[in-house]
User: Fold this.
Amino acid sequence: MKQKHKRVLLAIFEDPVRSNIYWTDIVALFEALGGEISLGKGSRIRVALNGVRAVFHRPHPEKETDKGAIKSVRGFLQEAGIEPEE
Assistant:
């Protein structure tokens, strides 16, 4: 995993929850972790990672992901067994 992906992972797990993480960086992190991504209807994106599946909505028209979506991404990653190294 590249350094940029590690920074995004750390940002996702920061407290308080950040709201300035670009959605494209989150998708790149999913791909770097070996996730399978497919597009759904509208702004939906399906992600499968380590046997765990989730559906997210791309933020639009903004590029940044809101706090609620970051919490959902964090929960998905934890369920898939992904957490930042201490």
Observations:
- The chain has one domain: 3-79.
- The radius of gyration is 12 Å.
- Helices lie at 3-12, 23-32, 67-79.
- The mean pLDDT is 94.
